Structures are given as C-alpha cells and as structure tokens.
Amino acid sequence: MSSSSASSHYALSFTTGGLLEREAAALMPAYYECRDWTKVREIAVKENLLQARTHSTGVRRVRETVNRLSAFSDSELEMLADVTASERAHLMWAAACRCYDLIGEFAEEVLRERFLTLAGTVSYEDYNSFYRAKAMWHDELDAVSTATYKKLRQVLFRMMVEAELLTPEGVIEPVLLSTRVAGCLAERTPSDVRFFPTRES
After folding, report:
1. Domain 73-201, CATH 3.90.230.10 — does that match?
2. Which one of 66, 82, 119, 188 is most buried, by most CB atoms within 10 A?
3. Strand partners, 166
4. CA within 13 Å, CB half, 179
C-alpha cells in the first residue's frame, strides 16, 4: 500500500490553475513582508495580486497557491526569493506532490517508474490505469463525475508540462535538478526527489 492508506481520502481540489508558479512568484513578496499566510491571502484577494478577472476566481487561485506554498519549509521559502524559472517550477511540482497524494503517487509510481524503466512516455491511458487501481481502495475517486475526472487528468498533465517533466506530446523529459533544489528535496524522508524523472536518489 502506498503512502495514502485506504482509510484516508484523496484531496482533489487541484483543478484551479495548473502548476501556479507565476502565482507563487506574485505572492511571495507579500509573504516576506508579513510572514503570515492568512494575511497574505487577505492582501492578495483585496489587492487582486493575481490579476484575476473575477473576485471568485481570485479567491480560488489565491487559496490554492497559498495552500501549496504552505507546504514549503522556511529554508525553501527563503530559497524561492532567488530561484530560476526552472527551479521554481520544480519546487512548485514538489509542493503539488506534497499537497495532493494522488499527484505524488502518480509522480512516483507512474512518471518516475516509467522513466527508470526506459518507457519514454506517459499517456492518458497510463493515468486511466493508475486511477482505476486507486479507485479500488478509494470510493471518492469512483464518485467523481466524468467531467471532473477529465479535468483532474488534464490539469495533472498540464502541471507536468509546465514543470518541464513532460513534453506536450507526452514524452518524459529527464530532469536535472539544481544542487540547491535537490538538496532541499533530499532533506525530507522519504526524499522528494522521488517525484521527478531522474536517476538521482
């Protein structure tokens, strides 16, 4: 059994946006100013820091971005102040994997596994098989509508493309993590490097 036991429920609220790395970059200055995520949410919504077209969209995107940023340690948050676009994308992928067991398990059990076995690609069919296997233990997966099912799949694949782990055609892109990002990810037990298509351990 994987890290998400049969008794726990998968959170499936990741359909807002995609990887949210641009949103994260927009919210971090407010965080460095007050070091309080509740205040960051208030400021971001009030001042429309994410430049959302509607108030409700802004609230959802701020909530989801803060949710993922909250998964970072203090040292990772400090590092976010000075990272390249690729480093931020890799960190935001790790955050999504930490926040959502379904994404983390897919990353480890399908994306990384197919990379290590030289499969070369990840397809919608691979996701469908993975989802069906998880649904045997998780009723909440069976309960989602067809539209939500497709949206979850679409957003997950979009995240992998935005994180430069997959091409739009589904070809796995081997990841070369920077030394500092790999160091941060490896500080966790088990190491969060497991979420990436790389031979690093």
Report:
1. no
2. 66
3. 172
4. 0
